[in-house]
Design goal:
Length: 122
């Protein structure tokens, strides 16, 4: 394997870490919105969510797609795709509990897809 290319397992670990950061961001934003509306307004900007979803889609396509090539199991990618879909659906929801709920469930579902992909690659 080329030293410059990232293994599927490493990409999945990076994607899971980003999923964790996304959950922390969502929860921190909710708490900060309740405590400090000025700070919450900055963290609640749509650009954070749009960029986060963009990164999740790119990492999902690359690492979950590689997983299918390496181990031949489609299920991790299908689960990850459902997670990405839930995250994308959350973007069109008004800010609030519904948006946060779809985002958190989507992130957790995507992280599960990456975890299953990693397990299948080992």
């Amino acid at each position: 394997m080329n030293q410059l290319s990232l293994s599927t397992s490493r990409l999945d670990r990076i994607a899971m870490a980003l999923s964790g950061l996304c959950i922390v961001h969502c929860l921190a934003t909710a708490v900060l919105l309740a405590l400090l509306s000025a700070a919450g307004g900055i963290l609640g900007e749509p650009i954070f969510h749009e960029v986060g979803l963009g990164l999740a889609i790119v990492l999902g396509i690359v690492s979950l797609g590689r997983g299918i090539r390496e181990h031949g199991f489609v299920m991790p990618s299908a689960i990850g795709g459902v997670g990405l879909g839930l995250m994308a659906y959350a973007l069109i929801q008004p800010h609030g509990v519904r948006e946060a709920a779809f985002t958190v469930v989507g992130v957790m579902t995507l992280a599960l897809g990456h975890r299953l992909n990693r397990m299948a690659s080992e």
